[in-house]
Amino acid sequence: MLIFRIVMVWSLQCFVQMAVLLNYSVLWGLTCRTHLPSHATLESDAAAPLFPIPASNFTDGNRMVFNWETMVLLPGQEQAFIVKCQLPTGLLQTESQSANLLLYGIAGAAIGVFAVLVIERLPAAVRRFMTRKESTISVVSSQEQQVLSLLDKKGGSCLQREIYEELSMSQSMASMLLNSLEERGLIKRFRDGRENVVHKMDV
């Protein structure tokens, strides 16, 4: 049984993770294609707006399309695709989008009320577990906060070696901090050749 995960990260505060179970020992000829929203462009201030570098790209006049090709994916191997994009400011401020935001706000409020009603009826043990999990994520040491702040400064992603070089800490200390942050879902590391790329997650 091969566990294959595609991880796509968008800069528009959206993180999508898909898991597919395939009854094959090896996956051959994987092709991943992503279409950016209409008129969207890659983030200019991001250190790595695309990861890894796509095999090809094109545009239909309204949106950009990127293709990745992976010849072989072995059992237990994870392939990640990161795309950071942004919409033009003028497009975000149109009246139609304001109306859509209002509708989304109403829908979000309704969902929030429903969620509160459901949570109020959950067993006390489940509520305690959720509270413990939230407090674990929210408690960040000063050194961990330095790492997160550096990632923000770098546009959300940077090489792992940049962290210990710019923060003047040992490689072992940086690795320990990154392990702690990754266990709590605050960052995710991806392999790029011989180096790790560290990406800050939106929690």
Unreliable parts: 1-23
Strand content: 25-35%
Radius of gyration: 20 Å
How would you spell out the order of helices and strands?
EEEEEEEEEHHHHEHHEE
Structural class per helix/strand content? alpha+beta
Work out the helicity level: 25-40%
* Spatial separation of the terminal alpha carbons: 31 Å
User: Total helix count?
Assistant: 6
- Write down the overall geometry: globular
Number of domains: 2
Structure description:
The chain has 203 residues and is of the alpha+beta class. The chain has 2 domains: 2-88, no CATH class; 139-200, Arc Repressor Mutant, subunit A (Orthogonal Bundle). It is 38% helix and 33% strand. The protein has 6 helices and 12 strands. It has helices at 89-92, 95-120, 124-138, 142-153, 160-166, 171-183; strands at 2-10, 14-22, 27-35, 41-42, 50-51, 56-59, 64-73, 79-83, 85-86, 157-159, 187-192, 195-200. It has a 4-stranded mixed beta sheet, with no helix packed on it. Strand 1 and strand 2 (14-22) form a beta hairpin. The protein is globular and about 45 Å long. The protein starts with a strand and ends with a strand.
